[in-house]
Hints:
The complex is a heterodimer.
Chain A: H1 2-45, H2 51-71, H3 74-92, H4 96-115, H5 121-124
Chain B: H1 23-44, H2 54-72, H3 78-101, H4 103-110, E1 114-118, E2 121-122, H5 124-129, H6 134-143, E3 152-157, E4 163-167, E5 181-185, E6 188-189, H7 191-196, H8 201-210, E7 219-224, E8 229-234, E9 240-243
Antiparallel strand pairs in B: 1-2, 1-3, 3-4, 5-6, 5-7, 7-8, 8-9
Amino acid sequence: xxxxxxxxxxxxxxxxxxxxxxxxxxxxxxxxxxxxxxxxxxxxxxxxxxxxxxxxxxxxxxxxxxxxxxxxxxxxxxxxxxxxxxxxxxxxxxxxxxxxxxxxxxxxxxxxxxxxxxxxxxxxx
Amino acid sequence: xxxxxxxxxxxxxxxxxxxxxxxxxxxxxxxxxxxxxxxxxxxxxxxxxxxxxxxxxxxxxxxxxxxxxxxxxxxxxxxxxxxxxxxxxxxxxxxxxxxxxxxxxxxxxxxxxxxxxxxxxxxxxxxxxxxxxxxxxxxxxxxxxxxxxxxxxxxxxxxxxxxxxxxxxxxxxxxxxxxxxxxxxxxxxxxxxxxxxxxxxxxxxxxxxxxxxxxxxxxxxxxxxxxxxxxxxxxxxxxxxxxxxxxxxxxx
Lengths: 125, 252
């Protein structure tokens, strides 16, 4: 009886801790990445962005995704890689209009991935 | 999030398919599936259960699937599978606790034994409630070592689907020269068994008249064995067992 109760509390505690940690962690990682993207977005709008700026965002993402792989399906990370890769090469060729649309996609992903972790009716069902 | 992005210039027009789910969501979704699956298993009756409690069967079904998905699909973090399995463990422990502490809920979750044969014969309503028919009952009896319906005083399906029978103290010791066969099941003659026993409907219609049964439609079960012993139960009545003289050449 005591053992059963103990196992229930331990399992419940582990699940709650994992859920809370994940929500905070994913939010934090994407907030950081989103902030870097927004800075890049401003520079692209002003047509002052260089390859170095784009590469620094990519380096930041490369660092973050190492740990994100543990909690996020790898396909989702692959989509960010894809759009970021396109944005970097467009910035390199100074094609700022097209680069802007890629950064817009990335910003949307940054908003939507943490959203998918919220316990809401549409996410549960 | 198997993201399908529609390429638009405005960021608000980008559609993103959400398949990514968090651990809190995994727990909730696992719990919902568990409850729904358990309810369905209970509604399906004892026929579907086998030799497990309904919740044990549900856990067996879910665990196998949950373990396989992250194992086979490398794109899914292993943590997703682990979280859902811990959720299943938690639900299992909760059900065990309810089993021990709360009998009325235990009955709701695990069901209760169904007495399908009592002193009056077969309880048709109990069979129907568990989605079983006469042939299922006869099959269960044969598996338990009883070949005639009047050999047992009580028979029941346990909550886990197992069949248990209590033999009749006053069961006559008879020569079992051939297997009792089902002649009438739920108001209909079994033509195959009529042919097997080399009898016909006229022979049984005569017996029914002698037993003051108006129509074969009123008979729920009628079996005949090689010694001419008939077990008959009309709908809503107590069973009766009697012996008849078999027609010439009738043997099987």
